[in-house]
Design goal:
This protein is mainly β. The protein is built from two helices and eleven strands. It has helices at residues 20-26, 61-64, and strands spanning 71-72, 77-83, 91-97, 102-108, 112-119, 121-122, 127-128, 133-136, 141-145, 150-156, 160-162. The strands form three sheets. The chain has a six-stranded antiparallel beta sheet, with no helix packed on it. A three-stranded antiparallel beta sheet has the order 9-4-11, with no helix packed on it. Strands 6-7 form a two-stranded antiparallel ribbon. Strand 6 and strand 7 (127-128) form a beta hairpin. The longest helix is centred in the N-terminal third of the chain and has 7 residues, at 20-26. The protein binds fe (ii) ion. Fe (ii) ion binds next to strand 4.
């Protein structure tokens, strides 16, 4: 205990700054952290810490994806919203594509940021692998498939608008 607060040490990496164990208690009560780890930061401005959402080990999410309370989303997709509702204003979410899962054809009314965390996500432009950040600008549209399955962090400036599938050109 430091300053009356519980400082936890991660059993995996033995670091007190690692939020791995705290993450377990954050889900599903996000976005407010139930406790703040007090870290001595004499080199920073003397202001108090504050409750916030902090995810760690995101590039290893495949290892702990079962801990996330996924909700059904589109066909073959599951979602865990970090904030926002996807209906108005900005939103961010983890999205898990099952095998052959697909985000239907949609238009971006604001910037769409997609960070691939695990697996491969494919659209009309590319097949993106883990560590790839995609920023789709407003006014663009596409559909997305997860092929063998993938997990992405999706951050939206504005809600997307789902559209009718464009007709395929006949031969
Ligand atoms: Fe999109």
């Amino acid at each position: 205990m430091i300053g009356g607060r519980d400082v936890r040490t991660c059993k995996r990496c033995a670091a007190s700054r690692c939020r791995y164990e705290i993450r377990l208690s954050v889900f599903p009560s996000m976005p407010i952290l139930p406790s703040i780890v007090e870290i001595k930061t004499p080199d920073l401005d003397p202001v108090p810490g504050f409750p916030r959402l902090e995810l760690s080990n995101l590039f290893n999410v495949a290892e702990w994806q079962h801990e996330i309370p996924w909700q059904p989303f589109k066909d073959g997709l599951e979602i865990y919203r970090l904030y926002g509702d996807g209906q108005s204003g900005p939103t961010a979410a983890l999205i898990r594509f099952k095998k052959a899962g697909k985000v239907p054809f949609h238009a971006h009314t604001g910037f769409e940021h997609i960070l691939i965390l695990a697996g491969v996500q494919r659209d009309q432009n590319s097949a993106a692998t883990p560590g790839t950040l995609i920023i789709n600008p407003p006014g663009t549209a596409h559909s997305v498939v997860g092929d063998a399955g993938c997990i992405v962090l999706a951050i939206y400036e504005k809600p997307v608008e789902f559209l009718a599938e464009p007709e395929k050109a006949s031969d």
